[in-house]
Design brief:
This protein has about 110 residues and is an alpha+beta fold. The chain is built from one helix and seven strands. Helices cover about 15% and strands about 30% of the residues. The strands form two sheets. A four-stranded antiparallel beta sheet has the order 3-2-5-6, with no helix packed on it. It has a three-stranded mixed beta sheet with strand order 4-1-7, with no helix packed on it.
């Protein structure tokens, strides 16, 4: 059985707390507050997969460095724009319509034939 303690850092060089360290066989573990995890494998050529915030890195145990640093997980810049819809024309039309109705409606009593 082979055993090694590794430290995992994020893109800013800070400890990658909660990174998953998963050898093909053996104990799977999560990094502690210092970004450290103990890797235990049966064979030096066994693959170890490390995942952290959507990123994944897999290496054979014998090539696994003491410090693993993940690159920046950045998206391309996204610009969102919106055009404010103007209701000014609708309000003008409503005012004209109401004005026209007010002028044409004289409110005179109408004769009802029974």
């Amino acid at each position: 059985m082979l055993r090694k303690t590794i430290t995992i850092l994020d893109a800013e060089g800070k400890p990658a707390v909660g990174a998953h360290v998963m050898p093909d066989t053996g104990e799977k573990t999560i990094t502690n507050a210092q970004g450290q995890a103990e890797v235990i494998v049966n064979d030096a050529e066994e693959w170890v997969t490390i995942t952290y915030v959507g990123q994944e890195n897999a290496l054979p145990y014998n090539q696994l460095p003491e410090v693993v640093k993940f690159g920046a997980n950045e998206l391309d810049e996204v610009v969102i724009t919106a055009k404010k819809k103007s209701y000014a024309a609708l309000w003008v039309l409503a005012a004209i319509t109401l004005g026209t109705l007010a002028i044409t409606n004289t409110n005179q009593p109408q004769k009802v034939v029974l």
